[in-house]
Design brief:
alpha/beta
Length: 512
């Protein structure tokens, strides 16, 4: 069961006013809403989890009903738009069960704030993280919201993406299984079959995000090469264009600036933390670590001009996590030889282990990013490691998949920049409306944030109001902010006058 305690939180900060310029135009009285040059009779939304209404780490009914496409569709209905059907989940817990073969849970249930512990929110999974929705409960479509959580650009083109037999092999998607017209179809084929008159497309986030959340460990998730992204994206755009529907497409936010990657500090190890709430016990643990690990390693590394990699821990200030940095020269052999020749029986006995484990170890520093999910790993025992040295991030270096270092962040950001060039060029070439979602997310990330009717929204985890409890997806209010960006772009491009939504009318973080 997932359980997260966030160390910094103020309930009073969830909603607060600001003097910033207001984003929402409330003066829509006596305006005749028209579609302009667009036809909204059959609006279809293509995308991934952001399109589906996914939030709080799961897909569930209330979140789906506050998806940004459903908000847009409600405004389109004022200008002749049709009904907007979504493949709603079975409940508000979220989560999915794979029913063939056996019954295996393949997606977590939603996160919620269970209570306030020591002034901080305790975040847990709903329903004790027991899912109730079976993936082979296929819904009867068609559906206007075709957002598929977890989908990359290439996945929207892939046949058999809705085949339950391919879920375990990762050639199919359990969420698409639920509403695909057949096991052999593709998302784009089901889209085209519906003969849309208008579409929205927000896809590509997962081509970089999943890699970032996996600490840029290619053995866990891959980063789509920009050339490959461009190839698939342009194929997708050409398939969409064959329907002659008008539409709007959005670019990709900078995923390395979202709360999931900016909330956990690189230095969370205080005496309080290392003593599980007992400062005296934490100080004793620090003395032990300095005597038996940090001190000897610092001495050895200093001899080889690398003493800045690992320094003794402090009892009075916060200490950084211990991580593995694969870009560092590997001092494995030097550490092993120094430990063998140290004259210390304990070091000599562990010489080979020390070299293998700490040859590329260093303490985290400003510029590194710690994924929110890594918090649960800190202090956990690394298997097959001497118990005194097994605590991840404390005595045992966090593996690559748990941390992002500056070179990996640059790699990801460069890829996103290239993706966004492709996306904007595609919009311009086809005359589609374009949404600069990257710019809007940057505004949320700024200190001033975004003001809506006197309510300030930022990218701050929990208290910022825009991001949900998974730190990746938006709240209903956050999706309202994005819906307005789509609406403004649609109006500007197609001379329509769809009214904006009021984000404050939707749900934010729910307190117990």
């Amino acid at each position: 069961m997932k359980k997260i305690i966030i160390s910094t939180f103020a309930v009073s900060a969830l909603l607060f006013t600001t003097s910033c310029e207001d984003e929402f135009d409330t003066d829509v009285n006596d305006v005749v809403v028209t579609s302009g040059e667009a036809d909204f009779k059959n609006y279809i939304a293509l995308g991934n989890s952001l399109t589906s209404g996914y939030r709080d780490g799961a897909l569930y009914i209330d979140g789906q009903n506050e998806s940004y496409p459903s908000m847009i569709a409600a405004q389109m209905k004022l200008a002749g738009g049709g009904d907007f059907r979504q493949p709603l989940m079975a409940d508000n817990n979220g989560g999915l069960l794979l029913a063939t073969p056996g019954v295996v849970q393949i997606a977590d249930t939603k996160l919620y704030i269970n209570g306030i512990v020591g002034g901080s929110p305790e975040i847990k999974n709903a329903n004790n993280n027991v899912a109730t929705t079976l993936t082979n409960t296929v819904l009867t479509g068609p559906f206007n919201n075709m957002g598929v959580p977890g989908a990359k650009v290439s996945h929207l083109l892939a046949p058999n993406y809705g085949n339950i037999q391919g879920v375990a092999l990762k050639t199919a998607n359990p969420y698409f299984v639920r509403f695909a017209s057949s096991p052999t179809t593709s998302v784009i084929n089901d889209f085209k079959t519906q003969k849309p008159t208008f579409f929205s497309l927000w896809i590509g986030n997962n081509d970089a995000l999943l890699y970032a959340l996996a600490g840029a460990d290619a053995s866990v998730e891959s980063l789509t090469p920009p050339a490959q992204f461009s190839q698939y994206y342009n194929i997708l755009i050409n398939e969409i264009a064959s329907t002659n529907a008008k539409g709007v497409i959005a670019n990709i936010p900078n995923v390395t600036s979202i709360p999931s990657l900016t909330t956990i500090p690189v230095n969370p190890l205080t005496s309080f933390v290392l003593g599980n709430g007992n400062v005296a016990a934490g100080e004793a643990n620090i003395d032990n670590l300095n005597t038996n690990l940090y001190g000897p390693l610092n001495q050895i590394l200093t001899a080889f001009g690398a003493g800045d990699r690992i320094k003794p821990l402090s009892k009075t200030t916060a200490n950084p996590l211990l991580i593995k940095d694969e870009t560092l020269p590997d001092l494995k052999s030097q550490i092993t030889a120094a430990a063998l020749g140290s004259g210390n029986p304990t070091l000599a006995a562990l010489a080979t282990y020390l070299g293998n484990t700490y040859g590329q170890a260093r303490q985290a520093r400003t510029g590194d990013l710690v994924p929110l999910t890594t918090r649960a790993q800190i202090g956990q025992a690394e298997p097959l490691v001497p118990s005194a040295l097994a605590a991840r991030g404390i005595a045992y270096p966090l593996a690559d998949k748990y941390i992002l270092i500056p070179s990996e962040i640059t790699e990801i950001n460069n890829a996103i920049d290239a993706y966004n060039i492709t996306i904007k060029a595609a919009a311009l070439s086809k005359g589609y409306a374009f949404v600069d979602a990257n710019k809007k997310m940057a505004e949320l990330g700024a200190q001033s944030g975004i003001s809506v009717d006197g309510v300030k929204y930022t990218a701050k985890f929990v208290s910022g109001g825009a991001f949900s409890l998974d730190g990746v997806h938006l709240t209903g209010r956050g999706y309202g902010i994005i819906a307005n960006e789509f609406i403004k772009s649609i109006n500007a491009t197609y001379k329509s006058n769809l009214p904006q939504v009021n984000p404050n009318n939707y749900s934010g973080i729910k307190l117990p």
